[in-house]
Write a structure and sequence with these properties.
The chain is about 45% helix and about 20% strand. It is α/β, with parallel strands linked by helices. α2 links the parallel β3 and β4.
Length: about 350
């Protein structure tokens, strides 16, 4: 069993990402290596827990941990304060103290909420990420962003709180529905589009293998995505500057999710739409060529992801964008692709003009 290690170097908050296929049953020994103690509270949902909780519980119990399950309803629509309180209720019921820890077993919603619960319960207890979706493996499980949605915007409530470790088993992707799997591929494209041109070429050349869930191609794609994100997080842990590049495609993507009530599109689908629109905006600004833009559109299409914004009036998009976390000093910090593999951050004052480039009018 080969395990690849990727370090996220953040001083005393540093941790490793363990990556491989068929390694989920090593979680108990990993927790012992980390020096974790007390009760292990596994936060999962009604979809993932039936698939993987027994394996995780057996590994933890074999390592000597009492284990408690907090099972939540599944879906982005449950990423809210009411569901967060269900986690707190479970932690209290299990009598978790500061010597215990949380494991987030599931996708990005579970990881974000369990991480926020860990950051705030008893003012902070350790947690470990066990991401089981492609999207969470390459994005939300790494970097310490935790939180919940607010009715007026995505991820408006949360905290930066780093996990003690991330264990990524790409074998869990075998049970992922095709639409959710493709959604995760959309997030992977982001890294190549604005941070690694060679990786973007790899994705173009190996799209078929990735769609077939080839383990070797997956381990490379997930590992490279995590390594890229780790380097960005190390240079800007709390998104004061360069880390904002990871929001490429997310600005309009989050607006799409907000306007559709988090029900019509999966996160990676919304990001794919946002990336295509960002590429069109970047071309309009003169930051990339038509050929660059077409490469992004072609890869998104090849991966079976949507390209076009849903038809809402410009005023509704502008309202959603005005609540974006990147709005500063009465302007929106918009992430553009500078060709393929590089980026530029542009302050946009006129949201209406931005939307007109995307074909959105009143």
């Amino acid at each position: 069993m080969t395990v690849e290690k990727i370090k996220v170097a953040l001083g005393e908050r540093s941790y490793d990402i363990a990556l491989g296929a068929g390694i989920l049953d090593t979680i108990g020994s990993l927790c012992r290596e980390l020096g974790l103690s007390g009760t292990a509270a596994v936060v999962s949902n009604t979809t993932v827990a039936p698939l993987y909780y027994d394996l995780v519980r057996a590994s933890l119990e074999a390592a000597g941990y009492p284990v408690f399950l907090v099972s939540l309803p599944d879906g982005e629509g449950y990423k809210n304060s009411a569901t967060l309180n269900l986690i707190y209720d479970g932690l209290v019921d299990a009598s978790l103290d500061r010597g215990s820890f949380i494991l987030a077993l599931g996708g990005g919603v579970i990881g974000d909420m369990a991480g926020f619960a860990a950051a705030s319960y008893l003012r902070g207890i350790p947690f470990v990420q066990l991401p089981t979706t492609l999207l969470s493996q390459v994005d939300s499980s790494v970097g310490g962003k935790t939180g919940i949605n607010h009715p007026r915007g995505k991820n408006l409530i949360g905290a930066f709180y780093q996990p003690r470790a991330v264990l990524i088993d790409v074998a869990t992707l075998d049970t992922l529905p095709d639409r959710e799997y493709r959604s995760g591929l959309g997030e992977i494209v982001k890294y190549g589009a604005v941070l690694d041109g060679d990786f973007f070429s790899f994705l173009e050349e190996n799209a078929g293998l990735l769609l077939a869930r080839d383990k070797s191609a997956l381990i490379h794609a997930v590992g490279r995505s995590c390594a890229i994100k780790a380097r960005v997080v190390e240079s800007d842990e709390r998104e004061g500057g360069v880390r904002a590049v990871l929001n490429y495609g997310h600005t309009l993507g989050h607006a799409v999710e907000t306007l559709t009530g988090y029900t019509r599109y999966l996160h990676g689908e919304a990001v794919a739409i946002g990336m295509v629109q960002a590429a069109r905006i970047s071309q309009s600004f003169g930051f990339c060529s038509r050929a660059d833009r077409k490469r992004i559109e072609s890869l998104v299409t090849l991966l079976g992801l949507p390209l076009e914004l849903p038809p809402f009036p410009a005023r509704q998009y502008a309202e959603a964008l005005s609540h974006d976390k990147k709005v500063r000093d009465s302007g929106l910090l918009f992430i553009c692709n500078l060709g393929i593999g590089s980026y530029r951050m542009e302050k946009v004052q006129d949201l209406t003009a931005l939307l007109e480039i995307c074909g959105i009018g009143e």
